[in-house]
Amino acid sequence: MFLKDRTALVTGSTSGIGLAYARALAAEGANVVINGFGDADAVEKERAGIEKDFNVKARYSAANMMKPDEIAAMVAQAETEFGAVDILVNNAGIQHVAPVDEFPIEKWDQIIAINLSSAFHATRSALPKMKAKGWGRIINTASAHAFVASPFKSAYVSAKHGIAGFTKTVALEVATNGITVNAIAPGYVWTPLVEKQIPDTMKARNMTKEQVINDVLLLAQPTKEFVTVEQVAALAVFLCTDAAKSITGATLPMDGGWTAA
User: Fold this and answer.
1) Which end of the chain has a smaller Cβ tally under 10 Å, C or N?
2) CB neighbour burial string for 222-251, b if at least 16 within 10 angstroms, e if fewer
3) Over the stretch 169-213, which tens digit does the pLDDT of each residue have?
4) Is 156 labeled as catalytic in the residue annotation?
5) What pLDDT, on the 0 to 100 scale, is given for residue 192?
């Protein structure tokens, strides 16, 4: 319980990787603020479950990651209740796939706002209290697409490359403040969102489930295995330990060897 009396704010955390981050940090004693969209009853179930399972305080913010004022208000609310945001996990993200000359302008703007700019706004808001305390951990969810590109994902790839650069820059700025800034770059992660895409892909490509998994989703991952949300969350927890305090400015691949080629 090395994070007892710490507070973690995780954006995009009502399901998937973000929820795994929140639960893993809570398991080490951190109070948590979760954020994101979803069915209200389902969100409340997850929030209450964190409190029950780990005996910590868990709060929910519905802040829209496209709105800087709401992001700042979310951070301020967490600071008012808990004193500071000690651990900030910038995880919110969306995806859209289309050729660049057909890419909807509003989708480009939305992806850049949520996947990249929201990390700037949250970090900008949380840093002053971290600096005052002389301790902080900022963890950004990047992607294998922070290193390599795929066709038809111009906005997503641009945003994730941007996250890698943002991570490096902020790490240098706060290197003497007891704050580390890193990014985790997963490959394909097994989440409900990915699982739900499989039937449509089977139909569109006339493939079996196994073919879709191995020949489409895992084509680029040499291990031919999905990364799990628990593995991603475990790396985030490690980055919060004293053992990891010399790791900063890094974008750490967790992609089954995808970017080794």
Assistant:
1) C
2) eeeebbbbeebbebbbebbeeebeeebbbb
3) 999 999 999 999 999 999 999 988 788 889 988 988 999 999 999
4) yes
5) 81
* DSSP per-residue letters across 100-134: GGG--HHHHHHHHIIIIIHHHHHHHHHHHHHHHHT
The 3-state DSSP class for residue 223 equals: coil
Name residues whose C-beta falls within 8 Å of residue 205's C-beta, 6 or more positions apart in sequence.
Answer: 211, 212, 216
Among the listed residues 21, 60, 156, 188, the single catalytic one is: 156
User: What pLDDT, on a 0 to 100 scale, did the predictor assign at position 161?
Assistant: 98
pLDDT reported for residue 239? 98
d(CA 164, CA 116): 10
Q: Can you read off the two tokens belonging to residue 249?
A: 């400015």
Tokens of 222: 């040499």
Query: What is the value of pTM for the model shown?
Result: 0.96
With tokens 């090395």, the residue in question is: 2
d(CA 72, CA 77): 9
| Parallel, antiparallel or unpaired: strands 31-35 and 7-10 | parallel
Residues of the chain whose pLDDT is less than 70? none
| Bridge partners (DSSP) listed for residue 88 | 9, 138
User: Which superfamily, per CATH, for 7-188+228-260?
Assistant: NAD(P)-binding Rossmann-like Domain (3.40.50.720)
| Residue ranges of domains in the chain | 7-188+228-260, 190-226
Task: State the Cα–Cα distance between residues 172 and 161, nearest whole angstrom.
Answer: 17
Amino acid type, 59: R
Separation CA 36–CA 18 (nearest Å): 9
| Distance from C-alpha of 2 to C-alpha of 244, rounded to nearest angstrom | 13
For residue 200, what pLDDT is reported?
83
